[in-house]
Amino acid sequence: MIKKILYKWISDTFMDGCSAYNPLPVRKASRSKKQARDMFEKLWVPHAKGTTFFSPYTAYKFVKQHWFPVCIKPNVGGYSRGSYFPITTWKEFWYAALWVKVWWPNSVIEQYLLGKNYRVVVTAWEVNSAIERMPSFVIGDGEKTISTLIDEENKIRRDMELTPVIHEIEKKWVVKAHLKKHGKNFSTVPKKWEKVQLFHRVSLAPGWVLETIDLKTISKKNKELFLKILDWFEANIFGIDVIMEKGIETNYDKQKTIFLELNSRPYLKMHHVPRYGKPHNLKPMYDKLNALNIDNTDIF
């Protein structure tokens, strides 16, 4: 009974709206970042060197050995809540190493790669969807302020009915602080076609940008690896997070690639509302998944 209550709290707090198509053994075997990293190592899948830590001093020793950039995040969680990346200075490190504990007592520190960030949804049948996730941004026209450009972008999101799954960009202190760090503010008028990034990482809350990837452009070797990962766990579905330096069209072994984590309860709603590109038709996937008999979906 206690475990059931705990799982409900974790589910409501960290995984609201996430799918539940995997049986309990799969979820148990893949729920933490460490478990995913251990599996990647066994399968020779390129991944970031990392370690779990309770004491920030352990994370400090990791940085001293491997140096920046790094990523710090809760060992269990979702939506990038409590995650900090890319961390490139000691000031950013100590802030992240301490505040990550608010989200989960056991934390993860990993090497980080600056590249294209993807979520790939794969089932036992095929690669079903892939999206590139980008920090929120606006494009200047040489006349309007960043504040006005944000208002216009938010109107586009409302007109496209992306909200509330994809958040509007809020003019809060996190955006203000990011702009200030780059010598800008809400009154700045960007040059025509100038891309102004409004946050330092991909994150749902500050209004990230999602772009659909044409599945035909994903290299055959990359698709084979995604399916291999799923098959190893005998899972019904995974949301696989991966960063690739050049892009998902290039074979993973021909570029710098870091597989980040596995999501046994992927947040599928966001695949229906990309800011750029046409959503993939996921009805056939849902039909097959809904026909499965999955036990213990309410047990942690």
What is the H/E string?
HHHEHEEHEEEEHHEEHEEH
CATH class of the largest domain reads Alpha Beta
How does CATH name the architecture of the largest domain?
A: 2-Layer Sandwich
Radius of gyration: 19 Å
The 3D shape can be described as globular
Number of helices: 9
Q: Beta-strand percentage?
A: 15-25%
How would you describe this protein?
- By secondary structure, the chain is of the alpha+beta class.
- It has three domains: 22-47 and 113-135 and 200-289, 2-Layer Sandwich (D-amino Acid Aminotransferase, Chain A, domain 1); 49-112, Dna Ligase, domain 1, CATH 3.30.1490; 139-197, no CATH class.
- It is 32% helix and 20% strand.
- It is built from nine helices and eleven strands.
- The chain has a five-stranded antiparallel beta sheet with strand order 9-6-5-10-11.
- Strand 5 (116-123) and strand 6 (127-134) form a beta hairpin.
- The protein is globular.
